[in-house]
Structure formats: structure tokens, C-alpha cells
Design brief:
12 strands, LptA, alpha+beta, 6-stranded antiparallel barrel, globular, glycolipid transfer activity, transport, lipopolysaccharide transport protein A fold, disordered N terminus, 40% strand
Length: 231
């Protein structure tokens, strides 16, 4: 007796294969979309170029230049403008040295009523720190700036709107920590400030308390007593 076995349903097999192919394509498309999303996310991240200021070349314009080989020092005089990434230093005289690791250091000084000038962009925001002083020392290794004698430092929104302003004898700005300090001194003494104390104007940060403006609220008496009377 011949036993007959059922033959596979060709249509069912083809349908099963088609479903498997469809699922594989869906998985492939999902993986591709995830990969593209990760690429887009990476390219959308802000490029913090200002963090690389210390790795940028130092460019200087001046009326005169001399080189002190003994002390490994470049000296620039006369309307000096030094730029290094987003950093700008302007002074009557700028001395530049470099350590064995390649880090650069600049000291700008000015005389008379002219003050030296410094500016650097803050990381990740459209804000700048700028300031004036008789002497400005920039430490390229630590991204640290020191302004000495009749110093003023401002935090700017863009390049024009002053948000904070600090006056002092010596002001330091740490570009890595985005932190600055100020100390008092006789060189900033004047009318209304005979002891030369530090003075600052600090604008409120966004997201803080709303300004006290607008019409006063209208008060009206209640016609009912709410709550439980106290015994």
C-alpha cells in the first residue's frame, strides 16, 4: 500500500518567504535610519572652535619688530594688533615668548592715557569677554588673562550689548573655567570712590524674575467669607 504524504503548499511557502523578506527589509531600513540619525546628530552639534584658541597661530601687525635671541622674545611696538583665533590684543607694545612645548605667552602694555585692549569669545554662545587695562598678560597654556592697572572687563552680548561690567585694579579671566576675579587698588580711586574699591554692574540673567513694570493689579473686596474661622 502506497502512503501518500501531503505536498507543501507552494503558495503558503512563497507567502512566508515574502513576509521574511519584508521583515528583513524593514530591519535594514530601520538600521539605516538609525545610522543616518546618528550622523545628523553628530553634524548638528555646535563646533566649539573658541576652545581651540590656544592651538591657533598668533598673527601680529605692528609698526616695528625686534627679536631678542638671548631671551627668546619677540618685541612688537607701535599700534600693535595681535590675533589668535577669537582672541584680540591691542597695545602700544606686545612681547611674545614661547615655551618648549609650543605654548605662547603675550604681554601688552600701553602708556599715557591709552589703555591696552583684550577680547575673547565665550564657548558655545554669542558672547564675548573684552576689557581694557594698562597691562594685559595672556597665558596661552592655561588660557588665562590678567589685566593690571585701571582694569575694566565686560561681558558682551554679541559685540555691542554690555551685560556685565567690572572695574578694578587687577582683573583676571580664566577662559577654561569661564571665571573672572577683581581686586581693588588706588589706581582706580576717584570721585565717589576714594579708596579704589571694585565696582560692578551685573545684568539679570534670562529666565530670572520678571521686571517690575506694567499696571498695578486691581483689587476688589470679596462678598463671601472663605475658609474656616479661627477660634
Amino acid at each position: 500500500m502506497n502512503e501518500r504524504f501531503p505536498r507543501p503548499d507552494g503558495g503558503h511557502a512563497r507567502a512566508t518567504l515574502a513576509r521574511r523578506v519584508t521583515r528583513a527589509r524593514r530591519v535594514s531600513r530601520a538600521a539605516l535610519c538609525a545610522a543616518l540619525a546618528s550622523v545628523v546628530a553628530l553634524t548638528a552639534l555646535p563646533a566649539h572652535a573658541e576652545k581651540a584658541d590656544r592651538d591657533k597661530p598668533l598673527n601680529i601687525e605692528a609698526d616695528n619688530m625686534s627679536y631678542d635671541d638671548l631671551n627668546q622674545k619677540n618685541i612688537f611696538t607701535g599700534h600693535v594688533v595681535a590675533t589668535k583665533g577669537t582672541i584680540v590684543i591691542k597695545a602700544d607694545r606686545v612681547e611674545v615668548t614661547q615655551d618648549p612645548q609650543g605654548y605662547q605667552y603675550a604681554t601688552g602694555t600701553s602708556s599715557g592715557n591709552t589703555l591696552s585692549y583684550f577680547r575673547q569669545k565665550r564657548d558655545g554662545v554669542d558672547e564675548y569677554i573684552d576689557g581694557n587695562a594698562v597691562r594685559i598678560d595672556y597665558d596661552g597654556k592655561n588660557d588665562f588673562t590678567k589685566l593690571t592697572t585701571r582694569a575694566t572687563v565686560r561681558r558682551l552680548q554679541g559685540l555691542t550689548t554690555v551685560q556685565d561690567e567690572v572695574h578694578g585694579s587687577v582683573i583676571t579671566y580664566d577662559g577654561q573655567k569661564d571665571f573672572y576675579t577683581a581686586t581693588a587698588g588706588k589706581d582706580v580711586a576717584g570721585p565717589g570712590n576714594p579708596t579704589g574699591r571694585v565696582r560692578a554692574m551685573l545684568a539679570p540673567r534670562s529666565g530670572g524674575a520678571a521686571p517690575l513694570n506694567g499696571p498695578p493689579a486691581t483689587l476688589s473686596p470679596s462678598t463671601t467669607i472663605q475658609g474656616t474661622p479661627q477660634q
